[in-house]
Amino acid sequence: MLKMIGRLKTHYLRLHLHGKTITLLFATVLMAMGLQLTLHAATSQFLFDMDGVRDPGSLAVKLQDVHAAVSRSIVVQLSDETRQLIDEYDGVSSPSVDLQKALLADLNRLIQAGSLYIFYNFTDVELSEQTQALIAQNPKSGEALVRLNRFLLSDAYPYELASLSEGQTLKALKGIAACRENLRQIKLAREKYRIANADTDPQWLSELSPEYLEKKALLCPADATAGTPGVLTEGASDPVLPCSYLYEMRPSEKADQEFLLAHEGDMRPIVRCQHHFLNLSVGGKLYRNGPQRDIYTSNKTGFSMLDDYMKGLRAQHGDAFLKTQEGRLKLKQATEKFVIKQFVPKMLSTLKEEIYTQLKAQLGNNILNTQMGMDILKQGTRQVKDQVSTKLQSLLEAQLGAEFLKTEEGQDILKKLSAEIDVFSLNGH
Prior knowledge:
By secondary structure, the chain is mainly α. The protein folds into four domains: about 40 residues; about 110 residues, no CATH class; about 120 residues, no CATH class; about 120 residues, no CATH class. Helix content is about 55%, strand content about 5%. It contains 16 helices and four strands. A four-stranded antiparallel beta sheet has the order 1-2-3-4. The radius of gyration is 28 Å and the shape is globular. It starts with a helix and ends in a 7-residue tail after the last helix.
């Protein structure tokens, strides 16, 4: 700026302009400088500081998640250095200082660069009233844009990034560091158990102790009940040892979870802390709950919800009720709602996205426009339909019973399942 002023001054002196003109020039330049300084001061209060990035480890893990629309849209805008540091992060250790600094610098650059709001990237994110109001203003620059972007990021990553709204500010949860260490120990114990047991998971977390894990690691420091059975969800309490953590591979959920793991990959939680909203994924990574993907927050799938519904019917009417026409009709309606209409379409959509991602990664972005790509998709469609149909029928039989599927209601469910799968296609992405 000073060099520019010097050049302008020399230029005007050569033209023999009067002093008043030079004074006016200086005044104009200084006003512009003052405006820039004022704008910087006005927006700097909305930038993140180190305390504003509350959980950089969880944030890095979520940015590794290619299936989360918000994270995908942000990662492509990060610097090459930051992306490399994110890719190298193991997801369980304390993130390096370099990674934390890189995240901070890039986030602050992004919220000042342009609007981060693209509707379809935020469809799963519950936006605050302040955020919605700023979206309606559609700011293009200045303070309003920076405020909007800061609110968007805080809404998308509520446990990782501090909010500007005082009412939304979350206090640090007591004992979360110790809880993280517990989950890290559970991760290591599970790995050793699987090595010793032909890559199979334990029925319950208590099977990891005492050979692979001290039993105290099963107790979250924030659990006032010290792992008392029944404090989580029905049927989820470890039958052997007090346990604060929700284990997703317990017997009642195992078949369902194994099917989902094959299609949703390493980000799916296997152990959850309901006290700290902290998850240990199948791939051994730790991250907080969040709105970007259902698996982050909810441990309920279509089959889990159906199981809860059946337990409710049994508790209210007894086992015999499920064999009556009224009971079968209720089961049919619940299965259609939770499994056929909710679970299956979402699972097929996720599977489709994964197939496209892998194809592009292995064969290039243009492969889908070639005849070879179309042939692969055609063949893949048939295989996916057959595999999904077989597995889902097996799960329904395990959930509802083979006898139920022979009834009129059961046959109707199988027909609707087949119809839902038949419309699945890998073409037209």
